[in-house]
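Retro notes
What went well: the complex prediction finally ran end to end.
Inputs used:
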Amino acid sequence: MTELVAELLVPFSYNYMLKAMWVSALVGGVCAFLSAYLMLKGWSLMGDALAHSIVPGVAAAYILGAPFAIGAFFAGILASLGMNFVKQQTRLREDAVIGLVFTTLFALGLLMASIWPTAVSIQTIVLGNILAIADEDVVQVAAIAGVSLAIMALIWKDLMVTFFDESHARSIGLNTTLLKVIFFTLLSACTVAALQTVGACLVIAMVVTPGATAYLLTDRFGRLIIISVALGVSTSFVGAYVSYFLDGATGGVIVTLQTLLFLVAFYFAPKHGLIAARRRRLAATEAAA
Amino acid sequence: MNAPVEAARAASTAYGASIAIRNLSVTYSNGFTAVRDASFALDPGTICALVGVNGSGKSTIFKAIMGFVKPSAGEVRLCGFPVDEALKKNIVAYVPQSEDVDWNFPVLVETVVMMGRYGHMNFLRMPSRADRYKVDEALERVGMSAYRDRQIGELSGGQKKRVFLARSLAQEGRIILLDEPFTGIDVKTEAAIIGLLRELRAAGHLMLVSTHNLGSVPDFCDRVVLLNRTVLAAGPTAEVFTQDNLERAFGGVLRNFKLGGRALHDDDDARHVTVLTDDERPLVFYGDRTRQGSDGH
């Protein structure tokens, strides 16, 4: 028994594991915060688009030896501007524009990685590698996540009004354009941070699943955020921890955990779950009979 | 007109809930000019209908008042202030069209009404006791107190409308914009909303109502602005809301029934009845006279 406990505590005795766990938790938390908004506006795929679009930026940063966050950030801004520009100038629908821009940039990233294979590890970018994260990268990730979390905590209500009813937001004097710019800037920044923990392919889950799960559990936006962040933090922490025993695959474990919790909510949520809905239907037919 | 109402109106005239639109033109980035050289002015204690076909510029006028679009020429002044300044002062409240609201958004009725108070709070939007009181009061006034813990999608069409009215009450905007407030609600709720608008008018508020519901316009609107990408006519309802003007504003869009002679009377009365409708509540002219509102406005 004590042997088992000792075995389970092993990850906590390694510095790199501790680092991986708390960095993942922080990133998971802030991504979950953003997910509460993203999934409500039907912009979920924006997260995916951003994650793929920043790949060339990260690749360029590695080639130039610059901090990866800077490269990713510029690529993210470029992607959002590009999407907005194409959308405004053409009659193409939003999904087509997103698909067009993000695949273009992702392809560019792959191209750069194949031209300079020694400088860029495409596997690290696409799948993440939190267990082997360098100390200066930890600083970048922690700074991004910490600052984003602080800003979100200050403006969450303004963002809620803006996303719920932009006309009303304007009528109370909010600068809705600025708020949306801030939101998407934070989203790009946190996507970059999440790139380190789960990789470009799975970032989308980090900025969608916790919010979607929380949405099934509450009708109050404030609680939705709290539940979402709690889910993001706990799954990311546990995911990083479990990945020690599975040797790698942190992103896969985190996202699998998030999906499992989503399924639990999907079936068992007290009001919006499948079972509750079935029970209501049953009660209605009985009442009718 | 009773004395307290006059007094309230006089008081509000002092701080002036007014809209002044002068030579407003709005051209969108795709080059489409939605409104050209529109001018009208409205005073406190007024309910004004904004009437016109789809695409006549009703929503552009609203957007200009809300600062969503910048005028390419002319100006909008609210209570004497430029738009951005007026918005910062919480002068304008907006009641959206039902179809513009995401009813699946995870917010409760009371949260929506509390949003009306945000402009009065500090930047963290922490409600004070006064804010909570105003929310309670607004909910009470529209008869929605019992539903405050409901998610907004669980309400009926009329209840949904009342929630957003309560929000505009809580906001205490002197100018209230209502976008198609009568779409998708029952006659009883319509009467309740009109009653509330009259109370607000008596308290000196200025309401601008975009509506397709021509039949009820003479019932509760003192003034009408007829639009067709510019202002065709603006003024007191009795002067502006005439059959000629409406036919000008709507062209062939409205259904127009003219009943007269033997189809209407069994006697020699030669007067006819004209019914104008765009499939909402029809507008009826008896002879050449508009049906007048019951309260004499």
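What we learned: The interface with chain B takes residues 40, 88, 154, 157-158, 160-161, 163-165, 167-168, 170-174, 215, 218-221, 224 of chain A (CB under 8 Å).
What to try next: split runs per interface for comparison.
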